Amino acid sequence: MLRNLLISLLLLSFVYIFYNLYVGFTPKTELDGIAAHYADKGAAEIGAANLVTAVVVTYRGFDTLGEVTILFLTASIIGFFLKLTEADENKVIIHRGTSELLATSSNLLVPIIILFGIYVFMNGHLTPGGGFQGGAIIASAIALAILANPNMHINHQIILWVESISGVVFVLMGVLGILLAGGFLDNRILPQGQFGTLLSAGAIPIIYSFIGLKVGAEISNILEKYQKSQKES
Amino acid sequence: MEFFELGKISLLIGFGLIVLGFWGILSQKNIIKIILSFTIMETGVNILIVSLGYVKGKTAPIIDSAVEQGANHSVLGQVVDPVPQALVLTAIVIGFGTTALLLAYAMKLFKAKRTLQINNFNDLKW
Question: Residue A217, class by beta-carbon neighbours within 10 Å (0-12 exposed, 13-18 middle, 19+ buried)?
C-alpha cells in the first residue's frame, strides 16, 4: 500500500513539473542560432538536400562516429554475454516447422526488403532516411528470414568483414577530411556535384552507405546471437 | 495562448508517454514489461525532443520542390529545426542498443532462476 502511495506521489510530482513546462511553453516562430545557419547556408556548404543528413553526417559527424561505436559495443557485449559452450554450439535443435505462408512470403520479401534498405541509405542525402534507417531495414529482412527458418545459418565471417571494412572506411574518410578539406569528417573531399542528384553532397553518400552497411551488419550480428542463444541449455 | 495548440499536442503526447513509461518501470513485476516500459519512456522523450524543434507552419528540413528556395538554396524561414531531429536519430540508436542489452540481461536472468518475476531476484536486498 505504502509502495503504491509513493509511486503515485512520484508520478504526480512528475505530472506537476510537466504541466508547468507545458503551460509555459510557446512554440518557436522562427529559427535562431545555429539552426538558422544550417537552414540558410547548409545547402551551399554541404550540398545535401536533406538538412538532417547534413547535420548528422557532417556538422555533427563526430556524434555519428560515437553512435556507431556504441552500436558496436552493444553487439560485442551481447556476444560476450550470450556466448555458448562448445557442446551447445554443435547442438542441433529440431524446431516445429514454420507455416508455409511465412516461409514462402519470406523467400519473396527478403531480397526486396534488402533492396529497399540499400535504396534508403544511398538516398540518405536527398530523401528522409539514411544509414541507420537503411541498416535497420536490412536487419529486419534478416529477422524475417530467421523467423521463417529458425535453423538458418548466418555466415559470421561475412558479417565480421562487412562491419570491419565499413568502420575502417568511415574513419578513413574522416581522416581524409583533415588532409584534403577543412577538418575531420568534412564532406568536401569530393566535388559537390549537381544539387539534388544522387552523386552530390561530396562524401556524404559514400559515408552514409558505409554507415548503413555497418549498422545492418551489427544488428544482424545481434540477431544472430539471439538466434544462437536458443541452443543454450 | 490556447491550451491545445497544434504545436503543443505532440509535446503533450511526449509527456504522457514519459509518465506512462515511468509508471510501468515502477509498478510492473515482470522484467519484460519493465523493458517495454523503458522503450515507451524513450519514445516519449524522442517525441518531446522532436516537438521542441517545431516551428509554427513550417515544413520538414528537406530541400526539394515543396519549399521555396532563396539564393544558393537557402531555406531560412521555411523549415523546422533540423538539429533536434538529428539528435533524436542518435537517441533512437542508443535506445536500440540499451534495449538489446536489457533483453540479453533478461535472458541471462531467466536462465539463472527460471523466472522473470522481479520479486524473486532478491539476492541484493536487505
Answer: buried
Tell me which chain A residue has its CA closest to the CA of residue B73.
Answer: A43
pLDDT tens, position by position, A56-83:
888 888 888 888 888 888 988 988 888 8
Distance CA A209, CA A173 (A): 12
Q: Do residues A144 and A113 make contact, with C-beta atoms less than 8 angstroms apart?
A: yes
- A201 in contact with B at a CB cutoff of 8 Å? no
Give the three cell numbers for residue A39: 537552414
User: Is A40 in Cβ contact with B104 (below 8 Å)?
Assistant: no
Q: Which residues contact A47 (CB under 8 A, 6 or more apart)?
A: A187, A192, A193, A195, A200, A201, A202, A204
- Which pLDDT score is estimated for B1? 55
Q: Radius of gyration (Cα) for chain B, nearest Å?
A: 20
**pTM for this predicted structure:** 0.84
Least confident of A140-149, A161-170, A188-197, B37-46: A188-197
Provide the shortest C-alpha distance from residue B120 to chain A (in Å).
17
Which range marks the domain in which residue A79 is found? 51-83+98-228
A vs B, Cβ pairs < 8 A, gives 154
How far, in Å, CA of A222 to CA of B93, rounded?
A: 14
Domain assignment present for residue A14? The answer is no
Above 0.90 for ipTM, yes or no? Answer: no
Q: Tell me how many domains chain A contains.
A: 1
Closest C-alpha among A79, A68, A73 to residue A210: A68
Q: Where are the domains of chain B?
A: 7-54+81-120
Cell of A146: 530467421
Quickly tell me which residue has 577538418 as its cell. Answer: A183
Question: Burial of B2 by CB count in 10 Å (0-12 exposed, 13-18 middle, 19+ buried)?
Answer: exposed
Kindly report the CATH number that applies to the domain delimited by B7-54+81-120. Answer: 1.10.287.3510
- Interface probe for B, chosen from A2, A6, A37, A40 (most Cβ of B below 10 Å), is A40
Q: Could you tell me if residue A67 is inside a domain? A: yes
Report the DSSP beta bridge partners of residue A28.
B55
